[in-house]
Write a structure and sequence with these properties.
By secondary structure, the chain is of the alpha/beta class. It has two domains: 62-304 and 532-593, no CATH class; 317-522 and 618-696, 3-Layer(aba) Sandwich (Rossmann fold). It is built from 20 helices and 15 strands. β9 (421-427), α14 (432-445) and β10 (454-461) form a beta-alpha-beta unit. α6 runs parallel beside α12 (287-311) and α8 packs antiparallel against α11. It is a multi-pass membrane protein. This is ferric-chelate reductase (NADH). Residues 310-415 form the FAD-binding FR-type domain.
């Protein structure tokens, strides 16, 4: 039987003084209300756009006021559709900076968390949507209603489908902007919101397919097939739309789950033609409609370019631990100013395997207890990771191993610490994000007068060799007393073995130490410690530069052509100028800030002494799996061993385990195969256990 007392209520973490907390809460409330008002106003414009009131009464007045000689027909859309989201993104950066500076990890009160618990509870668990919470279902229903509203208000069926697809594009790029300042404002990360990008992508493709096929049928029925070859000088280009649709079809065909999982490289490489898709899409819809979807694309390009700049630098790899479970722990050097929260991910590129492929892996280290190191775990579950494992495990010694990284990216707060107890359910390599959570709890437990949640870790592995993943629960520098200060119980299930195998058949853990190289640099934030403020500066300066470039061109080049003669400036050339100015402004602003911070990071890196690190005689691992000279009962890390119970030839009875959890506030975190995540979600949403607060951690795209 499991110790159900472990998940009974435990005192919450100590909070700041009441007055200080009240003032902070008031400021946060006012700021968030401002964000909400601006966002709702932006949505209201989208709602009113297809109505007669907007088109017949508002549009003439707005155009007369806003379509100046500096911005032409783009003036209205720049103000109504572009400016609000750029404002939220810029001010959001400042808000997140002060939230981080104040250490506001647990700003939301317990009562507020309980009020939101219903909205976060899973209400729909089914393929292909996955796990959908009540809040997600409500917003999805509202979005569908908005699409239906647009469908009802436009007259031409095929044309309205294109307009509705453009509406999907207005939201399409926000979820994949990894360093976004908008997603954290609503408690999201780019990893957790990837599914929204997938939903919007499929929906927009259905609409664009119907839009394109509808026009082809119409042209065929009216003997106007020549329209398919038209590249108009004064209106939309049909040819550009057809080329964009062709690229979109290629991306769409390779993005379905079956293709994406079995042929990831095909999906990965074909998805990079999104640049051509955007290019021809903008040539097709024109500048006015480009301004309607500009915020998402503009912020995505800023993020993508900053990631590109960060990835050019080789990361300083300190060591690689080869685990018997065919997993590799890579430990990098990092700057002291780089901070991150548990469950963050790091994108990794190994040029010797593939110069183009980037793969995300969970960060298992803790920036508080290991301020100068950052570690990730890579399990061999695909061709890329298998090549990496073979390359590292087959070499007797390696002086240098080239690795580039992007990130880390993750949540802006350690929200799981608000719960009074935690139940973590993992399958296979899904235990990795929980390693970082447990390390954070171990660190928090060392603070005076700080109470942390009790932890019940349920982990399922295929083989006993996978138990070595649990070795990583303790920091490299961790002492026995660290883990003994927390309430930790581990229930490990080995599903494919009936009993513990003989110890002499086990592989030994091996650690490879790499020599420091002057060309490598510690992992650091692309924009330094105050990255949110510098991102705000980039957003504001690049957007202002874009407006200046556009205004100067329109006023002193396009305006004289159109008003000094009978000529009309080419429709597509306007689009080219808009795209060029967007990229140029982002390039100038982001490059300037990044290069300045790179210079600062180089000066900091020179202060780090390069030294030869000898390979230790004894490996620090294999506490749980065993080796030829150790027995489980005589291990030195007794607190971890005593907290662990191994079940051979069995699977966890998740329903019984979760229903046995007592206490009013039990956080249930799950990371593992889809079937496991869905089972836990159904249990937590059954209505039989209102004390269970569900959260899924999934990196399956």
């Amino acid at each position: 039987m499991m110790d159900s007392d472990l998940v009974k209520e435990s005192p919450a973490i100590a909070t700041p003084s009441y007055e200080g907390k009240k003032q902070k809460k008031s400021r946060h409330t006012v700021t968030r209300m401002m964000f909400l008002v601006v966002f709702l106003g932006w949505l209201m414009v989208w709602v009113l756009l297809p109505t007669k009131v907007y088109k017949q009464q508002w549009t003439p007045k707005l155009n007369s006021k806003l379509n100046s000689t500096y911005f032409g027909e783009q003036g209205t859309n720049l103000l109504l559709f572009t400016f609000p989201m750029m404002l939220i993104a810029a001010v959001g950066c400042v808000y997140l900076h002060f939230q981080k500076k104040n250490g506001n990890s647990f700003s939301r009160s317990i009562s507020a968390s309980h009020r939101l618990a219903f909205w976060k509870k899973p209400v729909l668990v089914m393929a292909p949507l996955g796990i959908v919470s009540a809040m997600e279902l409500v917003f999805a229903a509202m979005f569908i209603m908005l699409l239906i509203w647009w469908e009802a208000k436009f007259r031409s069926v095929s044309l309205r489908l294109g307009y509705i697809g453009n509406l999907c594009w207005a939201f399409l790029f926000f979820p994949v902007t990894r360093g976004s300042s908008i997603l954290p404002l609503v408690g999201l990360t780019s990893e957790s919101s990837i599914k929204y990008h997938i939903w919007l992508g499929h929906l927009s493709m259905v609409l664009f397919a119907a839009h394109s096929i509808g026009f082809v049928i119409y042209w065929a029925m009216t003997n106007q097939m020549a329209e398919m070859l038209e590249w108009s000088k004064t209106y939309v280009s049909n040819v550009a739309g057809e080329i964009a649709f062709l690229f979109a079809l290629i991306m769409w065909a390779t993005s379905f789950p079956r293709v994406r999982r079995k042929m990831f490289e095909v999906f990965f490489y074909t998805h990079h033609i999104y640049t051509l898709y955007i290019f021809f899409y903008v040539l097709h819809v024109g500048t006015a409609y480009f301004c309607m979807i500009l915020p998402g694309i503009f912020l995505f390009i800023i993020d993508r370019y900053l990631r590109f700049l960060q990835s050019r630098q080789q990361a300083r790899l300190v060591s690689a631990r080869i685990l018997p479970s065919e997993a590799v722990e890579l430990t990098f050097s990092k700057s002291l100013g780089l901070t991150y929260n548990p469950t963050s991910i790091l994108f990794v590129n190994v040029p010797s395997i593939s110069k183009l492929q980037w793969h995300p892996f969970t960060v298992t280290s803790n920036c508080n207890s290991e301020p100068d190191k950052l570690s990730i775990v890579i399990k061999t579950e695909g061709s890329w990771s298998q090549k990496l494992y073979n390359k590292l495990s087959s070499l007797p010694a390696v002086d240098r191993f080239d690795v580039s990284v992007e990130g880390p990216y993750g949540p802006t707060s350690s929200h799981f610490l608000r719960h009074k107890s935690l139940v973590m359910v993992s399958g296979g390599s899904g235990v990795a994000p929980f390693i970082s959570i447990i390390r954070e709890i171990i660190f928090q437990s060392t603070k005076p007068n700080c109470k942390v949640p009790g932890i019940l870790l349920i982990c399922a592995f295929k083989n006993s060799a996978d138990l070595t993943m649990l070795d990583l629960l303790l920091p490299v520098s961790g002492m026995t007393s660290d883990i003994s200060q927390i309430q930790l119980q581990i229930e490990a299930y080995i599903t494919r073995e009936k009993e513990q195998p003989a110890t002499d058949t086990q592989k030994l853990l091996r650690t490879i130490w790499f020599k420091p190289n002057t060309s490598d640099a510690p992992i650091s934030a692309a924009l330094g410690p105050n990255s949110w403020l510098w991102l705000c500066a980039i957003i504001i300066s690049s957007f202002i530069m874009f407006l200046l470039f556009l205004g100067i061109l329109t006023r002193y080049y396009i305006y004289p052509i159109e008003h000094g003669s009978d000529e009309i400036y080419h429709f597509s050339f306007r689009c080219l100028w808009d795209m060029f100015f967007s990229c140029a402004a982002i390039f100038l602003a982001a490059s300037g800030v990044f290069l300045w911070h790179k210079k600062q990071a180089t000066m900091e890196g020179k202060q780090i002494q390069n030294m030869e690190v000898p390979t230790p005689v004894a490996s620090p691992g294999l506490w749980l799996c065993g080796s030829t000279d150790r027995e489980l009962e005589s291990l030195p890390h007794q607190p971890l061993v005593e907290a662990t119970k191994v079940h051979f030839g069995a699977r966890p009875d998740l329903k019984k385990i979760l229903f046995d959890c007592k206490g009013s506030d039990v956080g249930v975190l799950v990371c593992g195969p889809r079937k496991m995540r869905h089972e836990v979600a159904r249990i937590c949403s059954s209505g039989l256990a209102d004390n269970l607060h569900f959260e899924s951690i999934s990196f399956n795209w």
